Amino acid sequence: MTRVLVVDDEPQILRALRIMLQARHYEVTTAATGASALRAATTHPPDLVILDLGLPDVDGVDVIRSLREWTQIPIIILSGRMSSAAKIEALDAGADDYVTKPFSVEEFLARVRAVSRRVTSPEPPGDVELGRYLVQLADRRISVLSGEEGEPVHLTPTEWQLLELLIRNAGGLVSQRQLLHQVWGPTALAQSNYLRQYMKNLRRKLEADPARPRHLITEPGMGYRFEP
Fold this sequence. Notes:
8 helices; 41% helix
């Protein structure tokens, strides 16, 4: 059973999400503050965190950063902050998805299912060279090739999902629609801004010159491809 930690300071939302998720056979723990959420995540590590940003004690972005210091637990933001700046800040801090309040129940559950599939799906074997890095898909590890300079690279679960899809189709075009559908689910097909932001993050982490990528290539108006 997938364990979900729901963090929100509104009792009505906590109750509604707990009932909704338990009815679909998720094991649910709730927290109303950032501090209690971090304690719960440490004591009983969940498979997924659903996190509000507007907490009474600690900003949700700081909770994301604290979690990312020791875990790659997938994090879905559920927040009333609707600005692009707020979304980008949360995604850059390590969140995997962002849902704004008020939200569609079916869309929200689709995103939960999409993240759950990424967590439980088998990891493909094989190692791939990407510039000065060795990408070990089976272990979800990126290390520096022998003789090259640099530090190991850490990716969020969503960044791994994108990179794996591109590597599995090395040399071929993967459409925006396919990436959005497989990573964020069928309700996110219009959210190309998500894809652009995550591809920007991957290039920043993996390309020698992110402005002129050699391996993570954009095909304008169509999608992306991985060039070994």
